[in-house]
């Protein structure tokens, strides 16, 4: 079993179908979608930032996201478990909706994020293809023990050929240092909410792993396991 920091965490039904549709409708009426590398220096995406629009941020409860990520990475007891005054060590570096279009901007090459923790949350299902591809899942073959599904909902999606295909509303959290990319969309549009998070505390095992390795791709290739990297 992999350490929580070296795993991909799945939270099914994080957003309802109606919430996904509402957020998409709100984004569709805005004209300032970007397709430059202004905010994402190494990889251009066609996106719109929620941080620039109060109306969009009001539709997204960041506290709920923080709770799930704190649970996944065993940071601090979540506020939902009684720590109502606890201050989260998490904050957003960026939060944006990406639009993939078949035949246009239809995929994103393999890369690492600038953030320590990242997440994707699909907002649509009318497309074909897509998904998030992880190098470590391609290396694992049919052994997907890196994918940890939280809760009892088993109808969250699937892992196929190293790609996580999650249903709309499913929160997929991972270290931004994992090598990953956006699978090619072959039909219609795919919309995904993407978040990059800063972690204030530096005493978690994922920080120690990052310091020693700088990524969580496939440490077995280098002759040791993720657990061996802990001091």
TrEMBL record:
Cofactor(s) needed by this chain: L-ascorbate
SUPFAM superfamilies, per the entry: Clavaminate synthase-like
KW Signal (keyword) present: yes
UniProt keyword Signal present: yes
Alphabetical list of Gene3D superfamilies matching this protein: q2cbj1_9rhob like domain
InterPro entries on file: Oxoglu/Fe-dep_dioxygenase_dom (IPR005123), Pro_4_hyd_alph (IPR006620)
GO MF terms, alphabetically ordered: dioxygenase activity; iron ion binding; L-ascorbic acid binding; oxidoreductase activity, acting on paired donors, with incorporation or reduction of molecular oxygen
Signal sequence region: 1-20
Residues in Fe2OG dioxygenase domain copies: 91-199
Swiss-Prot/TrEMBL keywords: Dioxygenase, Iron, Metal-binding, Oxidoreductase, Signal
The protein's name: Fe2OG dioxygenase domain-containing protein
